[in-house]
Write a structure and sequence with these properties.
It contains three helices and eleven strands; from the N terminus they run αβββαββββββαββ. The protein is elongated, with a radius of gyration of 21 Å. With 185 residues, it is of the alpha+beta class. The longest helix is centred in the first third of the chain and has 31 residues. 26% of the residues are buried.
């Protein structure tokens, strides 16, 4: 009986040490720049923070601004809750999207999708309803020229992505970092 108790005790200590080591490794990896995308808007996988100014085409991590489209998205589970803007108790997690338009670019969002500088982006046709039939807050723009600090964040990876089609033009200053994919699954 004592031998069995020793084994159980050693196993519990080993699991505890392994769990603490995994937690420390995850924290250190995050601090060094590792990011894991768990959503379908971009390919799921490991991304890494890079030290550069955001440019058109980059994948960026940004904070939702707390407006009604983001509150709705969080309530419906389209985006994750997090620590930003915790005045409303839950807050918002970072979102990853592609930066498709910047200051000076001309953008439109119509029934067929997003157009940037006369180029229609694939997989960007706005949907009127989500997967369960709830209406989506579709944004419409027609030849809108982005002014200073404005940007458009879109995912052409997945037609059902919650992006600028539903929350519109955003402020570049919401961007926290630029990331690159390292390992996609």
């Amino acid at each position: 009986m004592k031998r069995n108790a020793n084994f159980v005790g050693r196993a519990c200590r080993a699991f505890a040490v392994a769990g603490i080591a995994a937690l420390v490794l995850a924290c250190v990896s995050y601090a060094c720049g590792a990011r894991i995308n768990r959503t379908n808007s971009l390919p799921k996988g490991l991304y890494w923070r890079v030290n550069k100014a955001p440019e058109r085409g980059d994948i960026v991590a940004f904070w939702p601004d707390g407006t009604e489209p983001f509150r709705l998205a969080r309530e419906r589970g389209y985006i994750l809750a997090g620590v930003y803007n915790i005045a409303d108790d839950i807050g918002y997690g970072l979102m990853l999207k592609q930066l498709v338009a910047l200051t000076g670019d001309i953008v439109s969002i119509d029934d067929d999708g997003v157009i940037v500088n006369s180029h229609r982006l694939p997989n960007t046709k706005p949907l009127a309803h989500d997967n369960v039939g709830d209406p989506l807050p579709v944004v419409r723009l027609s030849d809108y020229r982005l002014v200073e600090h404005e940007a458009l964040f879109v995912s052409d990876h997945l037609p059902r992505s919650y992006d600028a089609r539903y929350f519109g033009v955003q402020d570049m200053r919401q961007i926290v970092e630029v990331v690159v994919s390292v390992w996609i699954w």
